């Protein structure tokens, strides 16, 4: 239990208490998962009113330090000390990137041909003007066909064009939820949704997972005890664990979404690698669902284009959100993306990426396969179990000292549950095979040396 010793009395008391908690969390005095004193108990310790503690805890919760669980208490979040952004602008660049799942760059030379085709259409003047926030009609028509590949039936009037997947996610959360709203997520989830929620004042509630991802009974229990407004999910292949959701599981979650009138935000980031048009979670609860299909990892990441499918009752709100923050996605970039799809270049690039990922998965298994892991050609990252002598954050730091960036489980954790001793190793971050090989060799050496040292010490 947290024993508050020192606060800055020059600050407003509620802020001083929140900042003292943040200080003690980062100092390791209070650890992830620790239960905090009740409002009344801490008020007595500090000598302030209960309302002051309530305000302090509210500030701490907004900063992502703590979470309150109805009927159980207030706990330090698992990621209180972890970075939750997709990319950290204040961190130094490391020689080998194996944290961020970058789109594989295949050295494709057809880009000039695609751009030439777009220019020959004679619509450049149109593309250089302001456009509607939902995107041009002809681009949304291509979006309809693209989404149909992944089991998402849509019409032009239900599709928007956004400036990439993260923009789609941010615009959707901004448009459909209010500060303070609670959104259910996997207890290990995409850092980008954590970063967006923190910016927008949304509260993420972690739901226990099993071998297929979110457990329906746990989600329903959460809905019964809290006012849950939405659900964020990667319904096809969970990030970071690579767990695959069965059709039976999707049906069960869809029933809960409809029953509690949740807004589902499904981010199918790796759908293009799947190659199957099986019905997505969104398609099973289409009246309540927003489906995001980014093109960045599929091909030409620099274009920053994604397609979003939304029901009529949510569509205009999301379009307004797009207008509020970027006005509209670039019609010229959208035209290049759409032409790539129409002329078959996109499919050719994806085919080569799958072949490269297959090659890298084989190499990963050769070098690190003796460690428990989950990876496949349908994902751009492996989920790797660490020896008991490591925590994820310790290994992330040690790898960085060797010039390699990996992401610890702490980055993905939500709520008070102590994260498992895992790291996510990007299969696509290293730009070439030599860097990829060197990175895996260094990680293997680091793991084995720690195990040997730990064994000798015992």
TrEMBL record:
Coiled coil: none annotated. This is Transcriptional regulator, GntR family with aminotransferase domain-containing protein. Keywords: Aminotransferase, DNA-binding, Pyridoxal phosphate, Transcription, Transcription regulation, Transferase. SMART domains: HTH_GNTR. SUPFAM superfamilies: PLP-dependent transferases, Winged helix' DNA-binding domain. Residues 11-79 form the HTH gntR-type domain. It comes from the Bacteria. In the C-terminal section; belongs to the class-I pyridoxal-phosphate-dependent aminotransferase family. It holds the Pfam family GntR. It comes from uncultured delta proteobacterium. CDD domains: AAT_like, WHTH_GntR. GO terms for molecular function: DNA binding; DNA-binding transcription factor activity; pyridoxal phosphate binding; transaminase activity. PROSITE patterns: HTH_GNTR.
């Amino acid at each position: 239990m947290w024993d508050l010793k020192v606060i800055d009395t020059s600050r407003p008391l509620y802020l001083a208490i929140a900042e003292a908690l943040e200080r003690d969390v980062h100092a390791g005095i209070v650890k992830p998962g620790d239960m905090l004193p009740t409002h009344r108990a801490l008020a007595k310790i500090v000598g302030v009113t209960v309302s002051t503690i309530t305000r302090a805890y509210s500030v701490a919760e907004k900063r992502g330090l703590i979470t309150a669980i109805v009927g159980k208490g207030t706990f330090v979040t698992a990621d209180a000390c972890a970075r939750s952004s997709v990319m950290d602008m204040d961190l130094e660049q490391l020689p080998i990137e194996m944290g961020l799942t970058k789109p594989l760059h295949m050295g494709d030379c057809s880009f000039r041909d695609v751009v030439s085709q777009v220019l020959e259409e004679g619509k450049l003047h149109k593309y250089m003007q302001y456009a509607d926030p939902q995107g041009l009609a002809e681009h949304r028509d291509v979006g309809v066909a693209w989404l149909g590949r992944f089991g998402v039936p849509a019409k032009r009037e239900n599709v928007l064009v956004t400036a990439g997947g993260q923009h789609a996610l941010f615009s959707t959360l901004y448009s459909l939820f209010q500060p303070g709203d609670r959104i259910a997520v996997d207890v290990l989830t995409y850092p980008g949704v954590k970063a967006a929620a923190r910016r927008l004042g949304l509260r993420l509630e972690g739901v226990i997972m099993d071998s297929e991802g979110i457990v329906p009974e746990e989600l329903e229990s959460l809905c019964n005890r809290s006012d849950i407004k939405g659900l964020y999910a990667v319904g096809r292949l969970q990030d970071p664990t690579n767990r695959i959701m069965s059709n039976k599981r999707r049906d069960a979650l869809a029933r809960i979404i409809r029953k509690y009138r949740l807004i589902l935000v499904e981010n199918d980031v790796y759908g293009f690698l799947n190659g199957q048009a099986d019905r997505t979670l969104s398609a099973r609860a289409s009246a309540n669902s927003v489906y995001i299909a980014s093109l960045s990892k599929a091909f030409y990441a620099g274009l920053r284009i994604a397609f979003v499918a939304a029901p009529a009752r949510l569509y205009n709100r999301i379009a307004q959100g797009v207008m509020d923050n970027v006005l509209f996605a670039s019609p010229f970039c959208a035209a290049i993306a759409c032409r790539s799809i129409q002329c078959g270049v996109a499919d050719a690039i994806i085919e080569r990426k799958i072949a490269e990922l297959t090659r890298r998965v084989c190499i990963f298994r050769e070098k690190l396969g003796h460690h428990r892991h989950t990876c496949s050609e349908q994902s751009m990252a492996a989920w790797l179990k660490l020896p008991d002598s490591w925590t994820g954050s310790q290994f992330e730091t040690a790898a960085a000292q060797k010039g390699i960036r990996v992401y610890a489980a702490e980055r993905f954790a939500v709520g008070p549950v102590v994260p498992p001793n895992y790291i996510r190793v990007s299969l696509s971050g290293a730009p070439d095979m030599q860097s990829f090989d060197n990175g895996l060799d260094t990680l293997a050496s680091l793991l084995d040396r720690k195990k040997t040292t730990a064994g000798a010490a015992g």
